[in-house]
Amino acid sequence: MSRVGKNPIDVPEGVDVKLQGNFLTVKGPKGELKWNFREEMKVSLKDKVITVER
Question: Which domain holds residue 13?
Answer without folding.
Answer: 4-53
